């Protein structure tokens, strides 16, 4: 599903030199490479950047910074990784689910609007698989009801959003706060854990930085309740090297996705990923839909082709979230997607021979 070692070999000298520089400096926590990486990512994103320990921490820090009260409601999607709802529950907030669009898997503005109550305080869209949610509609909805918008951009770093007025913004910089992850398989991935928050509000950035550092701006002066969440210098050094290649990585994924599109179009009952006019797609995953998902996955496995199901069960059906009172049938689109989605290999090192084998194997499945 990912060839991280192959990617490393292409930039080995730069990565090794950067890691050696950190070791020589002995600046392993804060400062040094972390500061450099934050500055370079800030230039790329055109926003303030605060690095942290991982993407889940980024989400928790974001909602701590907003100062919401226990019991406040946050509308998000049930078709995503658990971290999105998990941090809300940990903070005493109430995750309120709204269904997704069946074509791009992202939060539906109409469904989000229907879920708003007097206790709603924020929207938390997830830019799933690398394509931005319909942010202009969601931001308009939020403005109408006085809500915050926090973006889960863990899978979409490197994609752009196009406003109807012609303005372009980087994914993660449209809401009050954006959150991302540097999990190794991400488009910009570390050699371990890492994350970051984005905001265009400097005072908010200072508050976020304080929360991530035990609630202090000045050492040993604790102005708020915080946490300990930091990106270590070795990971920052690696990410800083990879950041130079991020646009190339995205282009490589897009090229692989175009190959899949061309060779899988019209095959059997396959539904290919839909592209939206308001967003580029960084293709963290290339995700198909088919009613024969399980059979196809087994067929691929027997012929040496990996695949993954993201996500096999919507969050509202997991035991941990039964307390929210949802049940089967409440979010039919998410539930159908969980039964029909299948992600194919997608990474920067895919070559035409591999892509040809993958698509030919799928063609053989449908010809049986």
3D structure, described in words:
It is a single chain. The chain is built from 13 helices and 13 strands. It is α/β, with parallel strands linked by helices. It has two domains: 240 residues, Type I PLP-dependent aspartate aminotransferase-like (Major domain) (Aspartate Aminotransferase, domain 2, 3-Layer(aba) Sandwich), CATH 3.40.640; 122 residues, Aspartate Aminotransferase, domain 1 (Alpha-Beta Complex), CATH 3.90.1150. The strands form four sheets. It has a seven-stranded mixed beta sheet, sandwiched between helices. α5 links the parallel β2 and β3. The longest helix has 19 residues. It starts with a helix and ends with a helix. The mean pLDDT is 97.
The percentage helix is 40-55%
Strand order of the largest sheet: 1-9-8-5-4-2-3
Which structural category fits the helices and strands? alpha/beta
User: In the CATH hierarchy, what is the class of the largest domain?
Assistant: Alpha Beta
* Count of DSSP strands: 13
The best one-word shape is globular
Q: Remind me, CATH topology of the largest domain?
A: Aspartate Aminotransferase, domain 2
Please name the CATH architecture of the largest domain: 3-Layer(aba) Sandwich
């Amino acid at each position: 599903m990912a060839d991280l070692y192959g990617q490393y070999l292409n930039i080995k000298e730069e990565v090794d030199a950067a890691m050696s520089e950190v070791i020589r400096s002995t600046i392993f926590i804060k400062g040094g490479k972390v500061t450099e990486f934050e500055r370079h990512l800030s230039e790329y994103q055109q926003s303030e950047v605060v690095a942290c320990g991982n993407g889940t921490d980024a989400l928790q820090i974001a909602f701590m910074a907003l100062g919401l009260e226990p019991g406040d409601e946050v509308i998000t999607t049930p078709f995503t990784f658990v971290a999105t709802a998990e941090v809300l529950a940990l903070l005493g907030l109430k995750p309120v689910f709204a269904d997704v669009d069946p074509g791009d898997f992202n939060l539906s503005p109409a469904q989000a609007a229907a879920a708003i109550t007097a206790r709603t305080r924020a929207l938390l869209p997830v830019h799933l698989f690398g394509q931005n949610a319909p942010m202009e509609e969601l931001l308009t909805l939020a403005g109408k009801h006085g809500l915050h918008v926090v973006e889960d951009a863990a899978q979409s770093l490197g994609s752009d959003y196009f406003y109807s007025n012609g303005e372009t913004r980087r994914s993660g910089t449209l809401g009050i706060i954006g959150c991302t992850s540097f999990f190794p398989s991400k488009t910009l991935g570390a050699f371990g854990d890492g994350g970051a928050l984005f905001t265009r509000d400097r005072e908010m950035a200072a508050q976020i930085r304080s929360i991530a550092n035990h609630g202090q701006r000045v050492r040993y002066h604790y102005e708020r309740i915080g946490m300990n969440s930091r990106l270590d210098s070795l990971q920052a050094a690696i990410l800083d090297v990879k950041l130079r290649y991020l646009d190339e990585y995205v282009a490589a994924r897009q090229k692989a996705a175009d190959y899949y599109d061309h060779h899988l179009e019209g095959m059997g009952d396959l539904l290919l990923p839909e592209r939206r006019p308001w967003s580029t797609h960084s293709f963290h995953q290339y995700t198909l839909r088919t009613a024969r998902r399980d059979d196809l996955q087994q067929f691929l496995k027997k012929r040496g082709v990996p695949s993954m199901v993201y996500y096999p069960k919507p969050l509202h059906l997991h035991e941990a979230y039964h307390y929210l009172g949802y049940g089967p049938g409440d979010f039919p689109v998410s539930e159908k997607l969980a039964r029909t989605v299948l992600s194919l290999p997608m990474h920067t090192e895919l070559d035409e021979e591999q892509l040809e084998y993958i698509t030919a194997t799928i063609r053989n499945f449908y010809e049986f």
